[in-house]
User: What shape does this take?
Amino acid sequence: MAEKKYTYGLGRRKAATARARLYKGKGDIKINGKPALDYLSGNKTYLAEITDPLALTGKQKDYDITILVKGGGLAGQVDAIKLAISKALTVEAVDLRPMLKKAGYIKRDPREKERKKYGLRGARKKEQFSKR
Assistant: This one.
C-alpha cells in the first residue's frame, strides 16, 4: 500500500509543540488520533481558532489534517497547532504566504515561562522587605 502524500508543518508556543500533516481531502481534522472537537473538550472557540488560517485562505474543505501535539496546556497547544497549519499551507502553496503573514499567522510567539531563581519565591517575586 502506497503512502499518501502530505505537507508538513511544525508549530511551537510556550511548552507546546504541534506537528501538522495536510492531506488532500474533505476537511476532517484529527488531533492525537481524536476528532478535533473531542480533543478540545467541545470548545468551539478553540476549533475556530485552529481553522482560522484555512478560513482566511478559503481551503477549509480542501485538506484532511492530522495533528500530533505534545506539552503545554490547551491554549498553548491551540496556538502551536495554528502555526503548524499555517506553515504547512505555505509549503503547499507559496502564494498564500503574504496573506497569512499579514494576518499574523506565520509569526511564532517567543514568550516562554521564566525560570525560578534561587532566593526568590518565583522568577522575580521577593520576600517582603522588613526595615526592622
Notes: The chain has a mean pLDDT of 93. Residues 7-103 form a domain with the Ribosomal Protein S5; domain 2 fold (CATH 3.30.230.10). The two ends are 78 Å apart (CA to CA).
